[in-house]
Each structure stands twice: as structure tokens, then as C-alpha cells.
Design a protein that fits this description.
- The structure is a homodimer.
- Chain A is about 40% helix and about 15% strand.
- In chain A, strand 5, helix 7 and strand 6 form a beta-alpha-beta unit.
- Chain A has a single domain, classed as TIM Barrel (Alpha-Beta Barrel).
- By secondary structure, chain A is of the alpha/beta class.
- In chain A, helix 2 packs across helix 3 and helix 2 runs antiparallel to helix 11.
- At the A-B interface, helix 8, helix 9, helix 10 and helix 12 of A face helix 8, helix 9, helix 10 and helix 12 of B.
Chain lengths: ~290, ~290
């Protein structure tokens, strides 16, 4: 059953920028967050609290948070991999916790330096009044283990809900997913008792078809990056999240309310293109949103 | 009702190459056709019989046809806009007629130098034993008139069937379509009594979502270009057909039989990239088809 309204969470300031060769200053990263909020995004993954040695692009998360101009009605979240990351997030004063773990040990070891079981234990240790969303990486396929069974992902999702997750996001971290998987994950995720969503990459041009399949299956949350920024430093060739403005174009065309001002969001991508000095993978900001033109 | 098997028609040698700045020699264009057939494509739009003055990239269509090495089981077609084009196609000895007209007078005047009614009259005048597929341009939206009503497109499709069309293809010529439209056109097209299909561009990143929606609605034919070549010289910024190999990746992932050897098709895009001297818009040929890398 398709939702008439969905939440788009822009992960560009985190998943997008962490994959740029250039590390942007915290003020510029905060400005990106502020521009996204001004364009109508109600959910923004602003930073990640991970090791600055491992992901230098995300250093200075606390400085980014300080420079954000909070807007009423916007949820500002940060990514954490463990209890220590959560403590930094809570001290910085963000609104929501985005905890990430992977569906496979191989990937989780690379990304979080832990086995999946150890990450679930970290999640259990986090005692908080903040809402906790858990994103399950490589839910659609793992660069080391190949395709991941839906049953494996669902069993892990159930454990995460038991450990306190109030939302589950199935992530196609390396962009190998097809609509069949998006549909299955979201449909079966409907039995978890919490809202479910998808985090999609467009590496093989299936990202928007997966978004549409997830929408039809009842997904409540979609994670995307303004301009189609993003990827994963530990998953080679995993280019680009689905572009938020292209997702908005699709969703609005389907009659779904996103709350985003598409023209304002396109202007953010144009600004970001100048900041980064290269064209972004998003298509709508280059082609234009209007039919006649 | 989703089909277990569909026909992919590669329009790269026509819609793709007609939008390249460089005009390729007929032998190279024929080689592209031969490579596509060798990769398992069963339907290839090899040439168009239009004015060489208006579309110099398509000059020498007869020489292309002569240089094609015909394969058993492959349908080689050509695009025509009128009776005169059909006569050239018949003389050249192709297997099928791809007649194109637009859903709006504004676009048809630019593309075919005729009103829509005059194009329907041309279609009626074509007396042939060859199968005739009719593609309706700007079915999803027109760069001059804006969104096109599904009812308008369906009324024209019915007239085309009466005039002899044995297949109807709804074309998103400028890549503005959303899944809702693909679904509506294909579902309502089911009442025409002939197979229906879609011709999609990925200008705003909705092309593959539209393909998936069309598949679910029962489309039998998909038009795409190897590597994502294509566009329309009279529709500014209408970049790229959906890439055939990316479509194959999606369809095979959904369990649909295409007959195409994906690795062989990726090799065609790699060859084409060298011929044209630039990266193509397709993603699968760059990211690789396999999950585990």
C-alpha cells in the first residue's frame, strides 16, 4: 500500500561528502545542511561520529553541529557505529541516532571493525531517549559475500528492533539491488512493527526503480543525497546515492507529498557543483524539472 | 500481469547515433548492429530512412543495411516517418517497419514536418507485408505543449492500429515521464489488441523506474540504447535512452528472460566508448554486472 506522504532523509552531508576526495570545512558542511533544511528537507543526516583517521572527511562533526541553524520541524541526525559514537552524538545535541551495522560479517568487519553480533551488542548498550533508526548495510548484496538472503536481513532486523530500533532502513550500499529485492524487504519489513525505509545507490541504474518498488510496497522513509553524491569508501565503485531532487521529481509525479521545494533543492545542487568544482550525478538539476521548456 | 519474457529492441544504431556530433561511417554503424546481434539482441533498429540533410548522422542507411551480417532469429528494422521512407526501407530489404509519429502537432511538425493527421494518412498509405510497429513520440510529455493526456495518446494509438500498426510503442522522447504514466499507458494499451511497449529516456533518472512500471503493467517491448546513447536533436537536453545493458541487469534481476548475454553486451559498450572516445551514460558497463567484486 503506497503512502501518500513519505519522509526523505538527505544523507548528502554524510554519505555524500564522506566519499569526496576533498575534505570540506565544517562550516561548509553545515551550510549544506542549512541549505537542505531551507529547501524543505525534514530529515537530514548531518554528520557521522566515526574515527577521523578512518574517514577524515567526517572529522569535526561537533563543529558541523554547532554551525547548524536549527529549524523547527527538521530532524537532524548523525551516524554512529557504536556506543562511543552515540555518546559523541548525544553530547553534540542532535535529534536522532542513525545506527549502522551490516548484514554480513565480512562487510561489518570492514566498515565497523566488528562482527555483526558485536554491533548488535553495541546497539543494545545504547540507552537513550532519542529516536534510534537502524540502517542495515549491504541488505541487497555484499561486495565480499555476494547476494544476501532476504531471510538473513529480516532476522537481523528483528534483533535490531528488539535491541531498541524504532525504524529500520534497508541499505543497498553497493548499488546492486533490483526492484524484486526492494519490494520483498519492505513488504516483509512491514511485519517488524516499526516504520521501514530504503537507502539506495544508483550504481547500476536500478536505484530509482528500487525506490518506486519500495514506495509501492509501503516504504515510509527514503535515504538519498542531494545531487547524487555518495558511495562507500570500503566498497569500490559504489558510486552515488540516488539524487534527492530526482527522487522528489519521481515521488511528486506519483502524487506523493515530500514537503520539498524542488526548485530550491535544484539550487542546492547547483551551489554544491560550484563548491566541489565538478558536475554531480543527479540528472534533474541539469535537465530541469519542468516538462515544457 | 508481468511477462516472463520480453523483447528488447536496441535503438542505439538509430536513436543513439543520430544524436552524436560525429557521423560514423556506414561500416562502423553496421558493425555496431552486428555486435548487438552477436550479444543476443533479437530486435535492432538499425537505421532511419529520413532526410540526410536534416539528420546527417543517418545518411547512407542503405549502405548500413548492406553491411549487416544477417543472423537467424534477429529482426532488423528501420525508422520511417512517411511512405517515401517506407519505400526506401522495403527496397533495402529490412525485416520490419518502425513508423514514428508524435502525440502533438507541435512536436510532429518539428520532427516529421507534418500535422499528426497527415502522419496518420502516411501510415494508411503504406501497403506492406512487413510487420509495422508504430512509435508515438512525446507520449509522456512534449517540450512545446507540456504534459500530454493519456486519453489523447490512446485515441491516436487506436487510429494507428486501424491504419495497420501491429505493435504500439509509447515513447518518452524527452525523458519527463514518471511510473504512473508508464503504468497507465501500458495498462490502457492492453485494450488495443496488439502488443505494446515503451521507448524510454533517462533524462531525469526516471527511465528505469518507468521500465519497471511498464513491465509490471504487462509491456512486451522495451526500446533502449546500448551504453545509454541517444536523445533527440529537436528536443533540447533530452539526454540518453535508457542503457540496454542496465535494462537487462534490471529485467534479469526480476526473473524476466531477455535472451541477451549481459557480459557480451557490456563488451559492446566498451567498444563503443572507444569508437566515440568518451564515456557513455550507461552505469552497468562501468560498475560491472556481478554483485561480489
Amino acid at each position: 500500500m503506497m503512502a501518500a506522504q513519505v519522509t526523505i532523509c538527505d544523507v548528502g552531508p554524510r554519505d555524500g561528502l564522506q566519499n569526496e576526495a576533498e575534505t570540506l570545512a565544517p562550516e561548509v558542511r553545515a551550510e549544506l545542511v542549512n541549505r537542505l533544511a531551507a529547501a524543505g528537507l525534514r530529515s537530514i543526516e548531518a554528520v557521522s561520529f566515526v574515527s577521523a583517521e578512518r574517514v577524515p572527511q567526517m572529522a569535526g562533526a561537533e563543529d558541523v553541529v554547532t554551525a547548524i541553524e536549527r529549524r523547527e520541524g527538521v530532524t537532524y541526525s548523525g551516524l554512529v557505529l557504536n556506543e562511543k559514537g552515540y555518546e559523541r552524538l548525544a553530547a553534540a545535541g542532535l535529534d536522532a541516532v542513525h545506527f549502522t551495522l551490516a548484514a554480513t560479517d565480512s562487510f561489518n568487519r570492514r566498515n565497523a571493525n566488528r562482527l555483526v553480533d558485536e554491533s548488535v551488542a553495541e546497539l543494545e548498550r545504547i540507552e537513550t531517549d532519542l529516536p534510534v533508526s537502524v540502517s542495515i548495510s549491504v541488505s541487497f548484496g555484499c561486495p565480499f559475500d555476494g547476494e544476501v538472503e532476504t531471510a538473513t536481513v529480516m532476522a537481523l532486523a528483528e534483533r535490531c528492533v528488539q535491541a531498541g530500533a524504532q525504524e529500520i532502513v534497508f541499505a543497498d550500499t553497493i548499488g546492486v539491488g533490483v526492484p524484486r529485492q526492494a519490494r520483498e524487504l519492505v513488504e516483509r519489513g512491514g511485519g517488524l512493527g516499526v516504520p521501514v525505509g530504503v537507502h539506495l545507490h544508483n550504481t547500476r541504474n536500478t536505484g530509482f526503480a528500487n525506490a518506486y518498488a519500495a514506495l509501492e510496497a509501503g516504504a515510509a522513509v527514503f535515504e538519498s543525497s542531494v545531487g547524487g553524491l555518495g558511495g562507500c569508501p570500503f566498497a569500490p565503485r559504489a558510486t552515488g546515492n540516488i539524487a534527492t531532487e530526482d527522487l522528489v521529481y519521481l515521488l511528486e509525479g506519483e502524487g506523493v507529498e515530500t514537503g520539498v521545494d524542488l526548485d530550491a533543492l535544484i539550487a542546492v545542487s547547483e551551489w554544491l557543483e560550484e563548491v566541489l568544482g565538478r558536475p554531480l550525478p543527479g540528472q534533474v538539476y541539469r535537465a530541469g524539472a519542468s516538462v515544457a521548456g
